[in-house]
Automatic annotation (TrEMBL):
The keyword Signal applies. It comes from Chryseobacterium joostei. It comes from the Bacteria. SUPFAM superfamilies: Dimeric alpha+beta barrel. This is Uncharacterized conserved protein YciI, contains a putative active-site phosphohistidine. Transmembrane segments: none annotated. It holds the Pfam family YCII. Belongs to the YciI family.
Amino acid sequence: MISKTLLIASLLTSTLYFAQEKKTEKAKFNQELATSLGADQYGMKAYTIVMLTTGSAKIEDKTQMSTLMKGHMTNIGKLANEGKIIVAGPFLEKNKENYRGMFIFNTKSKEEAEQWVKTDPAVQAGVFSYEIFPWYGSAALPLYLKHHEEISKENP
């Protein structure tokens, strides 16, 4: 009985050890992928974050606001298809800074990011204003977009 228990415990310990070893195995470095993504030696690169804030325009007309928001979403899709926006989304809770949403643009240039955010109809109409920040993150970030389409049934 004791030897059977020891054998089971030993097998469990070995299985857990090898499972953990496999988990912590470092992925093989892929120079071609790193170069194509613009990664530095740490696998990182510079981006620009745009924080959308509540703008000064107060639009009461629901049809006009609906049209602006539809244009906002269409513009996000266009910029994403062009590889300019790699992350976009609204904040789910109100906050003291009046941040409404954010974009992560695939550029280190604040000027270029500003040009791109100004193509948004809701920004043009004053529904949203914005703040721009340089940011340093994983160069692999743009890769999530290709998988997002595989997991979403509908577009907002």
